């Protein structure tokens, strides 16, 4: 079992978050997205975006969490980003009110493949759920690539299920299908005997 923990991202984590994102996409999505698109992603540009997300979130409910593996030294091995559901969480043609109030959208939940199956994804999701509960969210949604079986298996193993919404992202003139998953945010566990 891995020794690890989750904490809020710090400004100095932005470059490492970008590195993890790029490394993960190039492995996990190599059969889903055009190779030249993955090869041409700019790590410095991604780092600037993550720096802004960490330092200037749109609201207190927008969060970036990082997973850290502890060994002789510590490594940032994954991250999760979420915030109140907005237009990006909607399916094409869905009205702005379709998801209702109290819904949080997961925009990223990635663990670098070489650090996978060590509990980091579960720790990230558990920490995110704790934060969502504290923010008063009652439901969560996440878009996944239709062909991303690993992410779908992980989320469905924790109670997420497809909600029937679908879309296709236009990635360099290639349509990449996605499905939306949803889950109820569980209430605070009752510790009374």
From TrEMBL:
<dbReference type="GO" id="GO:0016747">
    <property type="term" value="F:acyltransferase activity, transferring groups other than amino-acyl groups"/>
</dbReference>
<keyword id="KW-0808">Transferase</keyword>
<dbReference type="Pfam" id="PF00583">
    <property type="entry name" value="Acetyltransf_1"/>
</dbReference>
<protein>
    <submittedName>
        <fullName>GNAT family N-acetyltransferase</fullName>
    </submittedName>
</protein>
<feature type="domain" description="N-acetyltransferase">
    <location>
        <begin position="4"/>
        <end position="182"/>
    </location>
</feature>
<keyword id="KW-0012">Acyltransferase</keyword>
<dbReference type="InterPro" id="IPR000182">
    <property type="entry name" value="GNAT_dom"/>
</dbReference>
<dbReference type="InterPro" id="IPR016181">
    <property type="entry name" value="Acyl_CoA_acyltransferase"/>
</dbReference>
<dbReference type="InterPro" id="IPR050832">
    <property type="entry name" value="Bact_Acetyltransf"/>
</dbReference>
